[in-house]
Structures are given as structure tokens and as C-alpha cells.
IS110 family transposase (Alicyclobacillus mengziensis), 104 residues
Amino acid sequence: MMMLEKQLGHIDYINQLIDDLDAEIEERMTPFSEDLELIDTIPGIGMQTVQQILAEIGTDMSRYPSAKHLCSWAGLTPGHDESAGKKRSTKVRKGNLKLRNALT
């Protein structure tokens, strides 16, 4: 019985840590509420994914000259391998692993 009580106490402690982290994330995302709401309108993307996208990319889109540059930076586009007129498919580039995992 004592082990069960310790395990339940540990679960309560972990749940409190999760609640504290959720509150801190919410607080840090407050200045970006308009951006969050805009990204949240994309079908199939939940608020956690929206927060992760914003955390990884930021709000300054001038860093990326085009959407293609952003996708390439995120590692969402395959590499380009062409020689002597022959095109070969390549694997997706490394890019930003956290962002790529959030989007795929």
C-alpha cells in the first residue's frame, strides 16, 4: 500500500509540473495571440502545433524570402539531384527537426 501511495503522489507531482509548464507556455504566447489565432484557422492543426510552429519559426517572416525558402529551412522539401539531364529523387533534407515533426 505504501508503494501505491508513493506512486500516486509522484503522479500528482508530475501533473502539477505539467500544469505549471502549460501556464508558462500560455503566458509566453500571450503577445502573439493574433498570430496564434491566424495559424489556428488552418484545418487539422491544433493549438499545441500552432504554438510549436510559432516557437520554431517566429513571427518575422522577412527572414524567409519566399514560402519555398521557409519550407526548405524546415526540411520539408526534397533535395535536388540532377546530373547530365537525369533527375534522381533524394531524401528530405534535415532542416528543423522539431518543426518538421510538428508538421508531418
Remarks:
- The beta strands are 81-83, 86-88.
